[in-house]
Design a protein that fits this description.
Structural class: alpha/beta
Largest sheet: 7 strands, parallel
Helix content: 25-40%
Radius of gyration: 30 Å
Oligomer: single chain
Strand content: 5-15%
Pathway: Carbohydrate biosynthesis
Number of helices: 23
Number of strands: 22
Distance between the termini: 66 Å
Family: In the C-terminal section; belongs to the dTDP-4-dehydrorhamnose reductase family. In the N-terminal section; belongs to the NAD(P)-dependent epimerase/dehydratase family. dTDP-glucose dehydratase subfamily.
Strand order of the largest sheet: 3-2-1-4-5-6-10
Catalytic activity: UDP-alpha-D-glucose = UDP-4-dehydro-6-deoxy-alpha-D-glucose + H2O
Protein name: UDP-glucose 4,6-dehydratase
EC number: 4.2.1.76
């Protein structure tokens, strides 16, 4: 792997926390590199952070804003800049909820100005864009594999959304104009020099003052923490060894809950966590966990060196030795600070009512004004919930979904509007304000799909027009629609013969037109491909543990006088409906074969029924030709390839194992 050697580096935001450690490290280790720092000295910047570099002949500081195109172009040309390390950004999530436009201006527009200057001057050999792990969104709590560099970006707050937006610009300039870009996404960083709006320095300074340590929510949120010098070394590695066009996660597998961080700080100060920790109102949205796969960076030769205990002790010692490094930071130590990003020092939003003056000291200097906010709640609020809007109130799947939501504590409401009535759907969304919409409505026919053959207009209205209307309304309101569809749009053929184990994949074109029901479902699925806000779940021959439900496939065939005996893919709802909720949380989209892996035949199911439920049960088989004489429309028989779903949810059971675990064992009578 070729090593890159820069000559003249522009580091943006280097009077801030992470970038100052990177700058000081490069000045210390590479006297031949010229380092130019551009920083507007916002509230979380401090020139003292750059004291180790100040007297070096290869260091230059320029006070200015990356949003100034003239200044940026001037610096690139006059300083012969060949490398940019772009750290400058607004980064505190709490602030982004109160002043999101400023984040857009700094994080997106500022990045755009830099990129355009690089394009115009045509002299940049490396552009390292510093992003965050938060662009991936929340990681599942029980995930054992972290987000890798190709994982989908699903930001959940204004801060991470602007960082994701900036990444898109960086990628676009790399592809369209050939800029030599590299992006990094890092876990939480801690250590000396960090402005105390962040968790660890805030806890340390509060503990030094004998004040309570405020924890958002219940403190169960998990974060990964890296010591600042390890991170500076990671950027040194990316600068010299990173490949153009690549993304690198800077992370650690060592995770800690916020409550445990607070307890570790209490331990360092010999304080009782039971008395010093205070639970306060949560953020509007507080991701439960960020978890990264950092193997790609390790392959370049980097590794974490500092243990948590060692790093926390070093950080505590630095703050106790430098208590006045940031001046008066009382406003930043509040549970929910709102820093107003204005020049001339640190300012605090006084939108909340003041508490007693004894809680936090104030400073009347002209540089800083503070009003002390109070939390609206002293309890331990729940993490902000999802809210589902479900269509299909009277249907089987809609009812099961509502039961699952109740068990999981997810607020939901059933839609009142009819799918084909656009105005009523809009009213539902405006009144309920859901985060996701589940469509479990539609016409399958009573008692079976033969009904659709004589009610074609009703079938079209519900299955095609209604579904498309709901998808379109959801797209207008930027909502993901989870759409329960069917896999009964395929039949065994020469390329997918019965018993071959070759199943139909998501991209395969439907080939079954035997029933009008299947025709409408295939038609609407094709049309829904134009909607990028839809997740289509192909259900087949649904089964549940409720053996009294007449819609249950097992209930149906156990009541027939005769059954065919053909292997089919099927859906065990007890296992797969909870997965549909998880898919909504992950904002998954596109078409999914929503079946358990493998196939099972009618006879195999009835053998299980006889073994577990009724040892006296008997049945008879007949052929497809014989079946055709007693039904109106032919039935679909096929095998679906469930590997895409299995890859996303490795714990998904095969159809036989799922039937035993979720259906027959709970109902066992023999």
């Amino acid at each position: 792997m070729a090593s890159y050697t820069p000559k003249n580096i522009l580091i943006t935001g280097a009077a801030g926390f992470i970038a100052s450690h990177v700058c000081n490290r490069l000045i210390r280790n590479y006297p031949d590199y010229k380092i130019v720092v551009l920083d507007k000295l916002d509230y979380c910047s401090n020139l003292k952070n750059l004291f180790p570099s100040k007297s070096s002949p290869n260091f230059k500081f320029v006070k200015g804003d990356i949003g100034s195109a003239d200044l940026v172009n001037f610096l690139l040309i006059t300083e012969s800049i060949d490398t940019i390390m772009h750290f400058a950004a607004q980064t505190h999530v709490d602030n982004s909820f109160g002043n999101s436009f400023e984040f857009t201006k700094n994080n997106i527009y500022g990045t755009h100005v830099l990129l355009e200057a690089c394009k115009v001057t045509g002299q940049i050999r490396r552009f390292i864009h510093v992003s965050t792990d938060e662009v991936y969104g929340e990681t599942d709590e029980d995930a054992v594999v972290g987000n890798h560099e190709a994982s989908q970006l699903l930001p959940t707050n204004p801060y991470s959304a602007t960082k994701a937006g900036a990444e898109m610009l960086v990628m676009a300039y790399g592809r369209s104009y050939g800029l030599p870009v590299i992006t990094t996404r890092g876990n939480n960083v801690y250590g000396p020099n960090q402005f105390p709006e962040k968790l660890i320095p805030k806890f340390i300074l509060l503990a030094m003052r004998g004040l309570p340590l405020p924890i958002h929510g219940d403190g169960s949120n998990v974060r990964s923490y890296l010591y600042c010098e390890d991170v500076a070394e990671a950027f040194e590695c990316v600068l010299h060894k990173g490949e153009v066009g690549h993304v690198y996660n800077i992370g650690t597998k060592k995770e800690r809950r916020v409550i445990d961080v607070a307890k570790d700080v209490c331990k360092l100060f010999s304080m009782d966590p039971e008395t010093i920790i205070k639970f306060v109102e949560n953020r509007p949205f507080n991701d439960q966990r960020y978890f990264l796969d950092d193997q790609k960076l390790k392959n370049l030769g980097w590794s974490e060196r500092t243990t948590w205990e060692e790093g926390l002790k070093k950080t505590m010692e630095w703050y106790t030795q430098n208590p006045d490094w940031w001046g008066d930071v009382s406003g930043a130590l509040l549970p929910h600070p709102r820093m107003l990003m204005m020049p001339g020092g640190r300012h605090f939003d006084g939108s909340e009512e003041s508490k007693s003056a004894s809680d936090v000291s104030t400073n009347s200097s002209s540089q800083t004004r503070m009003v002390i906010p109070t939390s609206k709640s002293t309890g331990t609020p729940q993490k902000p919930s999802l809210k589902f809007l479900i269509y299909g109130r009277t249907g089987w799947i809609g009812g099961l979904l509502s039961n699952l939501c109740e068990k999981q504590g997810i607020p939901f409401e059933f839609g009142k509007g009819r799918l084909e009535d656009r105005s009523s759907l809009i009213a539902d969304i405006q009144n309920i304000k859901p985060t996701h919409v589940f469509n479990a409505a539609g016409v399958t026919g009573r008692p079976n799909v033969d009904w659709c053959e004589s009610h074609k207009t009703e079938t079209i209205r519900a299955n095609v027009a209604g579904t498309l209307t709901l998808a379109d309304v959801c797209r207008e309101h930027s909502l993901l629609m989870m759409n329960f569809a069917t896999g009964c749009i395929f039949e065994y053929d020469a390329a997918h013969p019965e018993g071959s184990g070759i199943g139909y994949k998501e991209e395969d074109k439907p080939n079954f037109i035997g029933s009008y029901y299947s025709k409408t479902k295939a038609m609407v699925e094709e049309l829904l491909k134009e909607y990028d806000n839809v997740c289509t779940l192909r259900v087949r021959m649904p089964i549940s543990s409720d053996l009294n439900n007449p819609r249950n496939f097992i209930t149906k065939i156990s009541r027939y006088n005769k059954v065919v005996n053909i292997p089919n893919s099927m859906t065990v709802l007890d296992e797969l409906l909870p997965i549909s909720i998880e898919m909504a949380k992950r904002n998954l989209r596109g078409i999914w074969n929503f079946t358990n892996p493998g196939v099972v035949s009618h006879n195999e199911i009835l053998e299980m029924y006889k073994s577990y439920i009724d040892p006296e049960f008997k049945w008879a088989n007949f052929t497809l030709e014989e079946q055709a004489k007693v039904i109106v429309a032919p039935r679909s028989n096929n095998e679906m390839d469930a590997s895409k779903l299995k890859n996303e949810f490795p714990e998904l059971l095969s159809i036989q194992d799922s039937l035993i675990k979720y259906v027959f064992e709970p109902n066992k009578k023999t």
